[in-house]
Amino acid sequence: QVQLVESGGGLVQSGGSLRLSCAASGSMPRLYAMAWYRQTPGNQRELVASITSGGTTNYADSVKGRFTISRDNAKNMIYLQMNSLKPEDTGVYFCNARMGTSFDVLYGHWGQGTQVTVFA
Q1: 84 CB contacts (<8 Å, ≥6 apart)?
Q2: Rounded distance, CA 50 to CA 70, Å?
Q3: What is the DSSP code string of 19-53?
């Protein structure tokens, strides 16, 4: 079992930056693939970025070149650096941990989410 706690969300003007953090604890979190998902009202969670246990990253087309996912296995931390933020980046961001890399399927362990609001 893995427990996840997100932090770092907030209110930011368009063009600004935020850094989300996810603290993982429990059973061997460094073996898990990790991801950030975003959810807006009335919509399903969508994948924003992912990183495997070996460090391979992948991004949604909408955030490529602006967001960077990283992990620090020594600290059991996962980060999402978000630059050049746009109003359409607004949503609740969830940290996810899983065995396997089928990121198009919603499963695994989830944090409670952190709200990101980008205003024009």
Answers
A1: 15, 17, 66
A2: 9
A3: EEEEEEEES-GGGSEEEEEEE-TTS--EEEEEE-T
List of E strands, 1-120 = 2-7, 10-13, 18-26, 33-39, 46-51, 57-59, 67-72, 77-82, 91-98, 109-110, 114-119
Tens-binned pLDDT, residue by residue, of the chain (120 aa) = 899 999 999 999 999 999 999 999 987 778 899 999 999 999 999 999 999 999 999 999 999 999 999 999 999 999 999 999 999 999 999 999 999 889 999 999 999 999 999 999
Cα–Cα distance for residue pair 19/38, rounded to 1 Å? 14
Q: Which long-range contacts (CB under 8 A, 24 or more apart) does 41-44 make?
A: 44/106
**Is residue 85 within 8 Å of residue 12, measured between CB atoms?**
yes
User: Could you give the count of Cα atoms lying within 13 Å of 1 in the half-sphere of its Cβ?
Assistant: 1
